[in-house]
Design goal:
Blueprint: E1 37-39, H1 53-66, E2 69-80, E3 84-86, E4 92-96, E5 103-109, E6 113-119, E7 123-129, E8 132-137, E9 142-147, H2 151-154, H3 156-160, E10 167-168, E11 174-175, E12 179-190, E13 193-202, E14 215-222, E15 228-235, E16 248-259, E17 277-278, E18 302-306
Parallel strand pairs: 1-16, 9-17
Antiparallel strand pairs: 2-5, 2-16, 3-4, 4-18, 5-6, 6-7, 7-8, 8-9, 10-11, 12-13, 13-14, 14-15, 15-16
Length: 307
């Protein structure tokens, strides 16, 4: 990954406006289907042989920028405090299952059109057309409009899916991040697929006195197709902005990544439903976490997993 964005982030990446309630019938009804499975379609990749971290990151960004369209679906797990731990070798163990696992659908089509749909107890849709962005919250009956950095229209997939070092905040501001290390970890296998593992470490950055937390990103990339399979975003305890024992851990698990697909013409509605009220927000965010997600109130069930 070059100079990271995320964000995943992102990453996701994520504004949740929740006030009151509203039905899904009031929401723009773009015919976007969930991506399942992994396919290059008509896209071509350059074969890599024992790449360095820099070579792999550069190849992934170049490939994603070359796509004419893409449909990507993934889930996001967020863990904090007593829900996970990391040993002195950097190995992470999940102690408890995530309370909520929202599903994300990401659709891209050149030039610079993007849809990000978040589904859990909140239903949120982000639509980007060039440097214009519309964020609609169904339960909140609210929408917000933004003017975003031109780079988000030029490098849509690498930035929104956090394979570059910059971070996209809740207010959709693109924040440069300084890389402290970029390295390859031993190759791995996920769901029977051989993957490269790229680790990116970032310094603290952003607005405010404490800014965005330092973090470690581990990105699992298919060796044959360069498609994302998983990403772990680790904010170690000593560097986390939260006052807890472990810091924060976000795990993105990719369900599907389809390249150069046909995208419905109604996939990018830039008009909010009539029932929604416009909300104006500042473009200068306070301390933010681009992967933060509200904690639901349900019981956890213990289960240990290694990441």
């Amino acid at each position: 990954m070059l100079t990271r964005i995320m964000s995943v982030i992102v990453l996701p990446l994520i504004l949740i406006i929740s006030i009151g309630g509203c039905g899904q019938k009031d929401f723009p009804s773009a015919s976007v289907k969930r991506a399942e499975g992994f396919s290059l379609g008509s896209a071509k990749i350059e074969p890599l042989k024992n790449p360095t971290a820099e070579q792999l990151q550069s190849a992934v960004i170049k490939f994603y920028d070359s796509l004419q369209s893409a449909s990507v679906s993934y889930t996001l797990e967020r863990h904090s405090t007593d829900e996970w731990s990391m040993d002195n070798k950097g190995n992470v163990t999940i102690e408890k299952e995530a309370l909520s696992v929202p599903e994300y659908d990401f659709v891209f089509c050149k030039p610079g059109k993007t849809l990000i749909k978040v589904e859990d107890e909140n239903l949120v849709r982000k639509v980007q057309n060039g440097t214009d962005m519309l964020v609609v919250s169904v339960p909140g009956k609210a929408y917000t409009k933004y003017n975003v950095d031109a780079r988000l229209a030029e490098h849509v997939i690498p930035l929104w899916l956090a394979v570059t070092p910059d971070t996209i905040t809740d207010q959709n501001v693109l924040m440069p991040r300084e890389v402290t290390s970029l390295k390859m970890l031993p190759d791995d296998k996920l769901d029977g697929v051989d993957v490269y593992v790229l680790e990116l470490s970032l310094k603290i950055g952003g607005y405010g006195a404490s800014g965005l937390p330092a973090e470690i990103r581990r990105i699992y990339i298919g060796k044959k197709d360069l498609l994302l399979r998983q990403m772990s975003i680790i904010q170690p305890p000593s560097l986390s902005t939260r006052k807890n024992d472990h810091g924060d851990l976000i795990v993105l698990k990719f369900i599907g990544f389809q390249c150069n697909v046909d995208v419905p013409k109604d996939a990018f509605p830039m008009t909010a439903p009539a029932v929604c009220k416009k909300i104006t927000v500042s473009n200068k965010p306070k301390v933010v976490n681009p992967y933060a997600h509200p904690k639901p109130r349900s019981k956890r069930q213990g289960a240990k997993k290694n990441y």
